[in-house]
Structures are given as C-alpha cells and as structure tokens.
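Design a sequence for this backbone.
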C-alpha cells in the first residue's frame, strides 16, 4: 500500500451508553480534552517524530483527564482498588509493549512503551511491572491519585446491587466500555496503535480485558492500526484488532469494511458490543461502533481537529456520494 502524504492521528475515549443527557459543561470538557489529545499527538507528527510518539502523547493527555476511564479517571474494582492496563504497538517492526494490573503508574501507556523499548518482554503485570517502572524512571503515584468521587459512587451502587443479588441497572457499570486509544500514521508511512484502560467497575480476581492484549484490543502492522473499546471478553475471543488488520493486510479488504465486519457483525453476533478506531497506510480512517456513542476524533492534512461524541453526530469521516448519485438527487 502507498502511504498518505500527510500524517494522520485518530483517537477514542471509549464507546458505550453515551446519551445526550450529559451536561453542557461535561460535553464541553470532553470535547476540549479530545481536542487537546489530538493537538498533542499531531504536534509530534508535524515535528517529524514517529507514529509511536504521537500515540503515546495523545493517550497521555486522556490518561490525565478524569472524564475518561484510564489513568486518573479509572474505575474501581470490587475490592475498591484501581487496576490499570495499557498496550502500544509499532506497526513498522511489530514491536509491542503491554502492562496489566498496575496500581501506582500515573501513565500506563508510558510504561507499556518502556516495556517495548527497554525490555526483552512484551507484557509485564502487577508488582513486577511496577518494579520495572521504578527501574526505568516511569512516574509512580500514591494509589489515592486515581480516586475520583464519581467512580467511587459507581462502585458503591454496584456493590449494593451485588449485595441484593440483582443485576447492575446501569449498563455502563455492567459492561464498562471506558477505554482510551490512538492510532497514527507518520510522515515515513509507519503506523502505530495504543490503548489504555481502568477496566470494568466492580471487576474481581484481577480480571484483564482486551486493551493490553496484543491482537485483541491493540494491534498495528505495516498496513493497518487498530485500538478497540468495548466488552473486552468478546474482543479477546475474536482477536478483534488483529482480525481487522488481517483482513486489510492479507485479504485486501478496505479498512472501513474490515472494521465494520468485525465490530458491527462478528462481535455482536456473539453477544458483545463496543467500537474501534482503525487507520490504514493510505490514511483512510474507520471509526465503527454499535453503542449509543463513542468519544472520538481525528486530525489530518489540514491540522484541524475533528471531534464527536454521539452516534448520530457527523464525525467527518462519511464517504462522499458518487458524482452521478449527487447529480441524480439534484432537482
């Protein structure tokens, strides 16, 4: 595949039950954070840095914002802790790094990158991952850094429902889709992908979802980069991110079709749901989701950030009508 003449960056802040009852202040704050993440990552690309640099920069912004279920805004486990996961992958050489179940890492995406760049491993978990973070100078914080009142109250509601042996009434709690991610294409034509998450509210037993699993929630090769956000167990079982890229790289399926087939057909057929962002080596963007909304955005040749939240909102990636169709519909 040829590559785009200009760099491209695409991000997401999670898919799920995102309805228009959101307060105007929260809506504005989320759009501002998405815009800031795009600008931060795109600045790396415009400076001639790599797609990996752009992905890490964009995700770090979202990890630092409590509106997203990653980093600062991570949800609580059943035991009242925060367990954070992240992964990053360089499509130019298939290098990857991943961390899971960390409690004190301020920016898990930076630790995942350090695993990729500074170790002989791909995935580190728990205490060992944090020991490695100390060794390579990644910032650690007191676990209280991750506590926000909103997330704490979500857990209290879930625990009450647990005690009553009732199902979680809030779908966001029952199947938390909160994840942040980015995919990028740099000026050299190289792709990268990254994903970071706080997991599911009320999760137990050290549950790990798809985000830090290379091929499930995060994947990049020479032709395709994907970051997923959804019900992780289904993304793991379908190896969703790799499945999309395999269709693009091996079967030469257009990326928008490949992403839609996996996200909107294969995963729902099994009972899962969610979304993803995907990017190919030509700079074509795909952002499929089958939930009420997905926090999402992209920035390309003109350097203008495009952000969207709701399912019925134009995110700027719709295919233009063919010329004959446009003229036929004219009066």
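Sequence:
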């Amino acid at each position: 595949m040829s590559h785009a003449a200009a760099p491209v960056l695409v991000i997401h802040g999670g898919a799920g039950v995102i309805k228009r009852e959101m307060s105007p202040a929260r809506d504005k704050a989320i759009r501002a954070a998405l815009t800031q993440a795009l600008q931060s990552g795109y600045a790396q690309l415009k400076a001639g840095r790599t797609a990996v640099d752009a992905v890490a920069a964009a995700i770090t912004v979202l990890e630092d914002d409590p509106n997203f279920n990653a980093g600062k805004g991570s949800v609580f486990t059943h035991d009242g802790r925060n367990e954070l996961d992240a992964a990053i992958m360089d499509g130019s050489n298939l290098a990857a790094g991943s961390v899971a179940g960390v409690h004190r890492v301020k920016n898990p995406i930076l630790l995942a990158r350090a695993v990729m760049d500074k170790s002989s491993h791909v995935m580190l978990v728990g205490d060992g991952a944090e020991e490695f973070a100390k060794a390579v100078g990644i910032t650690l914080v007191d676990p209280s850094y991750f506590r926000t009142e909103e997330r704490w109250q979500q857990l209290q509601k879930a625990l009450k429902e647990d005690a009553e042996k009732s199902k979680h009434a809030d779908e966001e709690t029952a199947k938390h889709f909160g994840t942040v991610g980015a995919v990028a294409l740099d000026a050299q034509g190289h792709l990268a992908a990254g994903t970071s998450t706080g997991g599911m509210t009320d999760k137990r037993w050290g549950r790990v979802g798809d985000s830090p699993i290379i091929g499930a929630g995060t994947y990049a090769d020479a032709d395709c980069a994907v970051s997923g956000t959804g019900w992780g167990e289904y993304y793991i079982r379908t190896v969703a991110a790799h499945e999309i890229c395999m269709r693009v790289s091996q079967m030469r399926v257009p990326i928008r079709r490949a992403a839609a087939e996996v996200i909107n057909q294969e995963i729902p057929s099994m009972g899962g749901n969610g979304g993803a962002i995907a990017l190919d080596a030509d700079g074509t963007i795909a952002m499929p989701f089958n939930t009420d909304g997905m926090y999402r955005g992209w920035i390309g040749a003109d350097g203008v950030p495009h952000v969207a939240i709701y399912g019925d909102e134009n995110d700027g990636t719709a295919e233009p009508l063919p010329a004959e169709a446009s003229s036929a519909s004219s009066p």
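The radius of gyration is 19 Å.
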